[in-house]
Amino acid sequence: MEIPYRIEQIVTSKFEQHPDLLEIGPEIQISTGYNFAVNSIEHRVRCDSEYIYSQNDIQLLDLKLVCIFEVEPDAFAALIIDKVVTIPVEFLRYMATICVGTARGDIHARTESTALNNFVLPPVNLVETITDPLVIKLAD
């Protein structure tokens, strides 16, 4: 099922960096997380994502990024059956892919002139990360 949408809004809700805490040598760990929400009245789907760079349990970078997607009204209505909205896992992954690319650019731009700029956000396997559709029972 193709779901027509547009990116309505991108918000960087948190960006903290501590390049001065970076040590030369020890490996940097990168963790990511994704959460989704639905506004059925305005036919929007929200992807909240977080990207953390750490080294030896010390946080070097923390980015929280929100992307809000507006789904075409008829397409959104087709996702609702018996007051339950189901967002297919493939569409969730697609939205998260947009977030990852946006985050990569945000991190690159904001870390310019710092040692953290040498650590590009790598590809994220969203097939392993996001495994289930989003299913929400709508209120009466």
Strand content: 35-45%
* Terminal Cα span: 27 Å
The level of helicity is 10-25%
SSE series: EEEEHEEHHE
What shape does the CA trace take?
elongated
Gyration radius, rounded: 17 Å
Sheet having the most strands:
4 strands, antiparallel
Structural class by SSE content: alpha+beta
Please give the count of helices: 3
**Whole-number average pLDDT?**
96
How many structural domains?
A: 1
CATH fold group: Bacterial Protein-export protein SecB
Output the CATH homologous superfamily.
SecB-like
- Please mark out the parts with pLDDT under 50 across 5 or more consecutive residues, or reply none: none
Give me the side-by-side strand order of the main sheet.
1-4-3-2
Number of strands: 7
CATH class: Alpha Beta
- Identify the CATH architecture: Roll
Written description of the protein model:
It is a single chain. With 140 residues, the chain is of the alpha+beta class. The chain has one domain: SecB-like (Bacterial Protein-export protein SecB, Roll), CATH 3.10.420.10. Strands 1-4-3-2 form a four-stranded antiparallel beta sheet. Strands 5-6-7 form a three-stranded antiparallel beta sheet. β5 and β6 form a beta hairpin. The mean pLDDT is 96.
